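Page 37, top half.
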Amino acid sequence: MKSLGLVQKGMVKSKFRLALCLLSSLFCAFACSTSEASASYRLTAGQEKFSQVVASLTAMNINVIRAWCFAEDNGSAAARHDRQHKHNWLNIGYYDSGAGSETKTSIWHNPTQAGIATAAFLQGQFLHPSAGIRRIWPSRLKHSAKTLINYIWKSGWASSGYGHGSWIFGAYRGLRHKSQPKTTYVRLWRNPDTHKRMTVGCPFGC
């Protein structure tokens, strides 16, 4: 009977070790898949700075803006554009027919200035955004990432509609989220139709 008890105890220990191994394997699989997913959703330094500036000046969800940037430009192409100091991360002025004259300005060579110009565009203070695009910024008041993304893809910003928003939603879920920066509203432009001078009061040292 004593030997039988020892056998039973050994079996319990073996089952316990087996359960631990299974749990460990499941945890490793989950951790690896999570790290791989987050690695595939990475932004460049320029995209991160740009997103922070746009979020600060518009009070829009910074992680939606980051996901929007990713949907517009990512991977090796984004890395190349960052090295080339091309920071028009939401591709303002790029159409299916080609690049417009508004893409030629030096504003887009700096992520801070590019972010300020983009914030001004979203607020209707720079260039001439369409009615659909002008509806994006007020949607931030609903405090819903899903609502904001819906307004973006329905705005006509991209002819693809970002796959009915699924490209932005996917990036939003895949990116490691960042805290919302403090909102700083400033009057961004002396003249909404020129690129020559920004008004005093820019909080980013531009």
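Page 37, bottom half:
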Amino acid sequence: MGTYHRRCIGVAASIAGAMFTLTILLVTLAGIRTKAQFIRSHSSDDPDIEAITVTSNLPVSDTRPYAGVSKAVYFNNAISGFITLTFKISGVPTLTLIAGAAFKDPKRIYTSTSSPLITDVVYEVNLTHGSQSGIVYTATDGNGSLTTVLITYTRDVTAPTACIVTPPPGYFTDTELTIAGTAQDNDGGAGVKRVSVMTDTTWEMAQGAANWIYTATLPIADGVLLTISARAEDYLGISQYPVATRSITLDNVRPSNPTLITTTNGLRCGIWIATDTVPVTWNLVTDGSGLTY
């Protein structure tokens, strides 16, 4: 083989080696770029509103307790007071929370140079304040990323209502009785939390809320007129008044059998008569409840 051919082969080998090295370098750079993109994306994640805790000296109900998400908060301002929201926000410092204006308080800004940012947002609520819809809370991190939640404050000063469906009015029962009914809150209210039933002097909790049931063990005394009461309570602790009532009569004694049966013409039963109708009368029967049949 001549010198020229040996040089061509050498140059070709050098070129092939250089191309292989370039390919490896491009693959490596691509991997580095991909990894760099992942790190950059990860480091610029939105700030995390980890928790929003609602406390108050007023009756309040948080529909998503402690969760750092959009939610509804029900309140009863039959008296004046304060609603406090405690935010916990994590992310790349500096962290900022912008709390929207609500009730009588303006928009406010809170910052922290460390993570997490934990701060209280306090609103003063007086007797005349109504519902506050869609108050905006925005968290921003050091990368300029932001997270926003909306909180609606709903005023609820109206009690829910429970109704007794069974037993019907004037019902007669022995010592075991199943009481059942329905309950509902006012439109836009916090919702029915529980229903209580009373058959003597103590309120007992029923099973269920919108549809509820309670099994009562009643007094043994016969002939007693008994009043059943039921009341609903919502998540703000507002109880129904006046309560629902139903009157029943205890009947624990069987009636005795009739002792004398006669036809209307004075003949005793058992006498054949030539007619296709036989009117019959008997003496009144009274049981222990004073009922007559």
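Margin note: The chain has one helix and 20 strands.
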